[in-house]
Amino acid sequence: MNSLVSESPAVTRNPRLHGLRCIHCAREYPLQDLPAGCPHCAAAGTPASLEAVYAELPKTLRTASTGYKWGPWLPYTQGVSLSEGGTPCLDLPRLARALGLRQLSAKHEGMNPTGSHKDRMSAQAVSRALDVGAQTVVLASSGNAAVSAAAYCAAAGLACEVATYHDMPEPFARALQRLGAKRLTFDRGFGRWEHLRSRVEQDGAFALTNYSVPAVGSPAFGVEGYRAVALECVADGCIPDHVLVPTARGDLLWGVYSGLRDLLQAGLIARMPRLWAVEPFPRLARVLGGEPLQADFAGQTMQFSTGGGTVTLQQALAVQRSGGGAVVVDDAGAVEGSARLAAQGLWVELCAGACLSALAQLRARGEIAPSEHALLLLTAKGDRDTFDTFS
Fold first, then answer.
1. How does strand 103-108 pair with strand 89-91?
2. Pairwise CA distance, residues 68 & 65, whole Å
3. Quick one: which of 62, 121, 207, 360 has the fewest CB in 10 Å?
4. What pLDDT digit, counting tens, does each position of 320-334 carry?
């Protein structure tokens, strides 16, 4: 969209959208809100996310003239917007030469309205909330998702309630106050999720993020918004061999995979890029090595956007089906990567900097060949890091 939303934005559901499908058992459900994922898989003890099912997808990358630019590929073709998307895909030739690569690109999601990729999820999810007549949106986040949801709810005229930790970084807490969101603080993650469950299942609030234990991804309507990242890259002629994605529970990773998968099926790309989940301590890496998916993987990190001890099925499937994997980058490596990106004029959050160090690891291991093209997903700008990256 080219302008800010009105007080009461119009919402139009994609006429091709007709249901939801489990990414594990492939059961299909009528169009509805199932924030805890697939009921069948949950009952079987194998929690799994849902994705949208479209009767038909476009055969070209022609964009819409009104509403969301990529609306024909998303659940909603029109809805609440702050002009998210259209972020630049930047060429980084000096770093490519230093790493011995044919080409290195960076998709700078920090150029979104609230400074992170989360705006893509918020636009679709808050549009869904408007569509179903919700009055209050609730979520658990102490970072980018909290600020993004607060902004989009304000634009939509909806109440926003965010369950955070006590030690939420001050820039985020200040943003929530300024945007009019209600903040509730908790000492532990389970406490936040228990609160969300109560607000959704007892009070009828609309869930923007997951609250299940074991965890699944965020509700499908929001995650589908990340498909536009893949669509934009391909439309801009940026079709990499490898994509590196900072990953916590895998919403962005799955959305990018989903978009690329459908582009491949439509014949709009010739091959599936290999997706690599970049994490601050071993979680998905341990699952891919044979440990249980539903275990708790404790670890400490300054990379707050990708913290947490859970792994979801969606992130495991995204890397396995694309032929990629998981790369662990500790805080020292993330600081180094952030500094190298800053030397190119890119000021990004710490976990985004970790992508560059992950790329160096993959080159050293021979997973990425000198003749290939790699893409870094830079999830957010760096003004919210609570420490001096370069001290």
1. antiparallel
2. 8
3. 62
4. 999 999 999 999 999
Please tell me if the domain spanning 89-116+222-378 has the same topology as the one spanning 118-218: yes
The radius of gyration of the chain from alpha carbons, rounded to an integer in Å, stands at: 19
Model confidence over 11-60: pLDDT tens digits?
999 999 999 999 999 999 999 999 999 999 999 999 999 999 999 999 99
Which pLDDT score, from 0 to 100, does residue 386 have? 66
pLDDT of residue 6: 45
265 Cβ neighbours under 8 A, 6+ residues apart? none
Give the whole-angstrom CA distance, residue 333 versus residue 359. 11
Residues of the chain where predicted confidence (pLDDT) is lower than 50: 1-6, 389-391
Q: Could you tell me how many helices (H) and strands (E) the chain has, helices first?
A: 13, 15
Burial code (b: 16+ CB inside 10 Å, e: under 16) for 30-64 equals eeebbbbbbeebbeeebbbbbbbebeeebeebeeb
d(CA 70, CA 199): 32
Answer positive or negative: Cα dihedral of 293, 299, 301, 304: positive
Contacts of 303 (CB under 8 A, 6+ apart): 246, 280, 331, 334, 349, 350, 351, 354
pTM given for the model: 0.95
- Helix, strand, coil shares of the chain, percent, nearest 5, are 35, 20, 45
Residue 7 has a pLDDT of 63
CATH class of the domain comprising 118-218: alpha beta
How much is the pLDDT for 62? 87
For 381, phi then psi, to 5°, come to -75, 170
Domain boundaries of the chain, sorted by first residue = 12-78, 89-116+222-378, 118-218
**Paired tokens of 383:** 């003004």
DSSP-assigned letter for residue 142: S
Report which of 185, 127, 177 is spatially closest to residue 157, judged by C-alpha positions: 127
- Does the bond joining 214 to the residue before it have cis omega, within 30 degrees of 0? yes
